[in-house]
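Memo to structure team: turn this sequence into structure tokens by end of day. - J.P.
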Amino acid sequence: MNYKLELREIVEADIKPDCSFMPEKDKYSMYVQAFIEDINNLPIVQNAFEESNAVIIELNVGVNIEELASACIPIHKYYWEQFRTKGFVKIT
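Reply from structure team:
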């Protein structure tokens, strides 16, 4: 199964107690690449890569979206102050 996870930079409206500052724009791509590398290191992921402001995630056979979502929680938390994701969308 393949999934798409859209990404976006943090905007002023995102600034709240859990995200108290604007990240440096010139480091956005560096954090996205690190995020993708962390997803690639999950044992349930066959491959993850960036495509048009999104991460395309190819799962190993037999892995479902619930397993992916659960495995990604700590990764999402780690990058919360750097960018936002828009949820997993199943693709063919």
